[in-house]
Amino acid sequence: MGEIREIAEGRVHKRVPAKERALVYIGSESDCMLYHLIEISNGGLSFRYIGEDLLTKGLSELSLLMEDNCYVAALPVETVSDTLLVNSNITIRRRSVRFGELSSMQKSQLNDFIKKNSE
């Protein structure tokens, strides 16, 4: 029933447009990539990336950064969609993810991140 309600009423959580310096961090210290956050909510987020690399890679967690500080680390995620935004000499894509089960600390940090992002 929850899925039907979500579809009928739209998003469960209001998405907040990201500030310019909000980033998504994927990977380990030795092999990481930073991507521009597009929007975020308590239920998930979307970010943009260049190229096709993430299409073939599974994505199970990510971290959030703002102004060179890690705000929320190791958020479990599941990909909802991955769509083409611009297909020219450089391919630009948008990936949307939903959060998995978050710890109480992650929920608190995520709320702080969203609040800072909307100021």
Any idea how many domains?
1
Major beta sheet, strand line-up: 2-3-4-7-6-5
Structural class: alpha+beta
Q: How many helices?
A: 3
Strand content: over 45%
- The CATH superfamily name is predicted glycosyltransferase like domains
Low-pLDDT runs: 1-9
Q: Any idea of the CATH class?
A: Mainly Beta
Number of DSSP E strands: 7
Largest sheet: 6 strands, antiparallel, barrel
Named CATH topology: Thrombin, subunit H
Give the rounded overall mean pLDDT: 86
CATH architecture: Beta Barrel
Radius of gyration: 14 Å
Roughly what percent helix?
A: 10-25%
Compute the separation of the termini in Å: 35 Å
Overall, the morphology is: globular
Write the element-wise H/E pattern from the N-terminal end onward.
HEEEEHEEEH
3D structure, described in words:
This protein has one domain: Thrombin, subunit H (Beta Barrel), CATH 2.40.10. It has 3 helices and 7 strands. A 6-stranded antiparallel beta barrel has the order 2-3-4-7-6-5. The protein is globular. It starts with a helix and ends with a helix.
Keywords:
22% helix, 119 residues, disordered N terminus, Thrombin, subunit H, alpha+beta, 7 strands, single chain, 6-stranded antiparallel barrel
Q: Could you outline the blueprint of secondary structure elements for this entry?
A:
Elements: H1 2-9, E1 16-17, E2 22-27, E3 32-40, E4 44-50, H2 53-56, E5 61-66, E6 69-87, E7 91-99, H3 104-117
Antiparallel strand pairs: 1-3, 2-3, 2-5, 3-4, 4-7, 5-6, 6-7
Task: Give a brief description.
Helices cover 22% and strands 49% of the residues. A six-stranded antiparallel barrel has the order 2-3-4-7-6-5.
